[in-house]
Write a structure and sequence with these properties.
globular; 115 residues
Length: 115
Amino acid sequence: QVQLVESGGGLVQPGGSLRLSCAASGFIFQLNAMGWYRQAPGKERELVAQITGRATTNYAESVKGRFTISRDNAKNTVYLQMNSLKPEDTAVYYCHILYRARDYWGQGTQVTVSS
């Protein structure tokens, strides 16, 4: 069965950095695109970044130039490096895969940007 387990969230000051990790299992990791989404209180879940099996990336406009998505196929892990964090980046961040026409989500990890 597909499992996605996020880690790396926490409290950081504005301008700081965090790296999120998502360990995946239950499918052939290197063949599948992976994504990071986030959901702030009272808002809809939104796409942050995606990476294909060939490492082509796509970012939301709000994070371009600050966030970097990457993957390590040997470790079945996808990462989100977040730099120059802003208070508006505060949200629960989720790892995602669309696999065999079904959405799978991790449990989420809280990122709070505050002084």
